[in-house]
Every structure is written in structure tokens, then in C-alpha cells.
Amino acid sequence: MTEPPCTRLSERIPEVATGRADWSAGEAEHLSACAACRAEWQLAQTAQRLARRAEALIDPDRVADHVMRRLAESPARGIGRRLRWVGVTVAAAAAILLVVRVTSTPSPEMMPVVASVPPDGLFLRGLDSLTVEELESVLVSIDQPIAAVSTIDAYEWQSLDDHELERLLREWEG
Amino acid sequence: MTALPGPDSATDAALIEAYRAGSEPAASELVSRHAPAVGRFLYSAGAAASDVEDLAQEAFFRAFRRLDTWRGDASFRSWLFSIARNLLKDEFRKRRGRHVLSIEDHDVPNRDDPAGEVEAQEAADQLRRGLMDLPRLQREVFLLRVQEGGSYDEIAAVLDTTPGAARVHYHHAVKRLKELLS
């Protein structure tokens, strides 16, 4: 079954409007005689004008520069998700320490000398500036049990006073 | 594979592989070749002129961040359009349905035919407003068909509909816009 000329022409309009084809002689003749098809063709041309206006609003090189910069600055998606767990893990560890401290009564003579730096890999401040490899190494250390990365043992945690514990937590949290 | 017309999608796949292997210039090339089309779509579908570049940038950023979820059954360009339309949807939601259409961002006037130029500019403004009055699917089908030359199969893949439905949406959109501009 042959399609009516208007239907055929309507289906051809996008191809011609985007410059990927030209009208055949028969189509051009139909176009000049058919007001409905001419209106549709005019509509497509107006849409192309709108497209050209849009192209003037965008600088592909600038977009590429910004995108590449953002990609370089942001960790990979998987890492970002895992980093949220770093925060949760550290917060949970801090909460456990607080509970342990509150429920225990340390003797003054057993006060340990607490390391002034947080355990390896538990820095939160400055994570944004780490490379992907560095972030991976942070994650590996976080995955280990706390005792494995801690510079003071469980006995020492329990013997911290409130001020020392608070100071330690502040240092951890930046 | 369903691909909207545009730069060679086979080359796109090669560029994506190169980017995955660590080539930044490959990613820049992908942005440069598809940014104009993404911009056309965003602006014509209702993004404010001042937001077009930022939204396009966000679309590419999301695309590269989620590249592991791109399965290659659609072209990179089609996939970008899917991301761009979702971004625009979020943008409209943020503005609580108010579309921001600026009519000050016209082309450089044609000095040879100022009257014709003014008329053409007015028609383009009118079309943009008319597009915003269409249901979202009609608007997007129309733009992907008339501005990008997509087939109904290709458009259906981008908009997650059927080719038959895309065809119906297109003809409804054309009918309504013709009435508006006549």
C-alpha cells in the first residue's frame, strides 16, 4: 500500500531538516503545492533555528575542561560510597570508646601517654585531597579491626580521662 | 544497537574504552563531539539559557562517573540524552514546575533581512513556549526527531517508550505546534 504523499513527506522532514538528505524533485513539487506540508516544514526549520540558538550558548571545550577537572577532583563512585562507611566506622568507634570510658573508673596512676596523632588511616580532614590510591589505603586500614591500627591498646583506652578522650576525638574529627 | 544520528558511535565506543584505560583526551573528545547536541536538547526542552552549559556539564560528569553502568546497548549519545532529560526533570522539580524561558538570547541578527529576522526570532520564541505547553513525552519526541533526526526506534530507546508510541507523540506534537505557529 502506498502512503499518501503528505505522510511520506512528513516522515522525510526530520532527515532534510537536519541536513542529512535533500528533497527530491517530486517532494519539492508537493511541498510547494501543499500548505499543510509547508507549515510542517516551516515548523522543522524553526526548531532548527532554536537548535542553532542553543549551540551558541555552549562552549564544548569549556564544558570538557570543567568535566575533566571535576572528575579529577572527585573520587571514583565506588570509593565515595565506601568513604561514607569510613565516617560511620569512625563515629561508631568513637561512640564505643565513650561508652567504655563512662562505664569504667580509671585509676590516676595508670594514666597512659596518649599518642598525639590519630591512628593511621583515621584522618577525616583532608580526605578530599587524597589520590585514589591513598584513599584505597585508608579504606584498607579502616577495614582492619580497630586494635590492629590503633597506637594505644584497649587497656589504655579505658584509662583515658574525659579531657584526654575528648582531645583525642577532636583530633580525629579534625 | 540503537543509536541517535551523530558522530560515529563505533568511534565513541573506542573513545570510551580509551578513557576507561586512563586517557583523558578521549573523554574530552567525547564531550566536544556531543556537547552541542546535549545543549540543543536542554535549551529547546526548557532549560534557562544561563543554565544550559552547567546542566550539560553535569550530564557529562554523571555519565563518566557512571560509565560502569553503561552497557553499550544504546549509543553514548542516546545515553547522554537520557541523563540530560532526567537532569532537566529534576531542575523543573526544583523550580516547582515553573519553566524559566528567557527570550533575550537571540541569534546574531541577519542584517540583510531585519524584518524577516525579527519574524523568525519571534517564531522561535513562540515555538519554545509552545513546546513547554506540550506533555513532556511529546516535547522530547519532537525535539529528538526534528532537531536530531532520530528514528522512532532510537527515540523510543532514549525515552523508554515504544516506537509506535513515539510516532503518535510526534504527530500530536506536530499538530499542536503547527496550530500554534500558523
The percent range for helix content of chain A is: 55-70%
In percent terms, what proportion of residues of chain A is strand? under 5%
Task: Round the Cα radius of gyration of chain A to an integer and report it.
Answer: 34 Å
DSSP strand tally of chain B:
0
Strand content of chain B: under 5%
- Shape annotation of chain A: rod-shaped
Tell me the count of domains of chain B. Answer: 1
**Fourth-tier CATH superfamily name of chain B:** RNA polymerase sigma factor, region 2, helix turn helix motif
Work out the helicity level of chain B. Answer: 55-70%
How many DSSP H or I helices of chain A? 9
Structural class of chain A: mainly alpha
Terminal CA distance of chain A: 76 Å
CATH architecture label of chain B: Orthogonal Bundle
Rounded mean pLDDT of chain B is 87
- Largest interface, counted by CB within 8 Å of the partner chain's CB: A-B, 41 and 49 residues
For the record, the CATH class of chain B is Mainly Alpha
CATH topology of chain B: Rna Polymerase Sigma Factor, Chain: A
Q: What structural class results from the helix and strand content of chain B?
A: mainly alpha
Give the overall pLDDT of chain A as a whole number.
71
Question: What would you say this structure looks like, in words?
Answer:
The complex is a heterodimer of chains A (174) and B (182). Chain A has 174 residues and is mainly alpha-helical. Chain A has two domains: 5-55, no CATH class; 75-173, no CATH class. Helix content of chain A is 67%, strand content 0%. Chain A is built from nine helices and no strands. Chain A has helices at residues 5-17, 25-33, 35-55, 60-73, 77-103, 132-143, 146-149, 154-158, 162-173. The radius of gyration of chain A is 34 Å and the shape is rod-shaped. The model of chain A is unreliable at 109-125 and 142-155 (pLDDT under 50). Chain B has 182 residues and is mainly alpha-helical. Chain B has one domain (9-102, 113-181): Rna Polymerase Sigma Factor, Chain: A, CATH 1.10.1740.10. Chain B contains eight helices and no strands. In chain B, helix 3 crosses helix 4 and helix 6 crosses helix 7. Chain B is globular and about 50 Å long. Chain B starts with 8 loop residues before the first helix and ends with a helix. Classes of the chains: A mainly alpha (174), B mainly alpha (182). The A-B interface holds A 10, 13-15, 17-18, 20, 36, 39-40, 42-44, 46-68, 70-71, 74, 76-77 and B 5, 24, 27-28, 31-33, 35-36, 38-44, 49, 52-53, 56-57, 60-61, 64-66, 68, 105-107, 120, 123-124, 127-128, 142-143, 145-150, 171, 174, 177-178, 181-182.
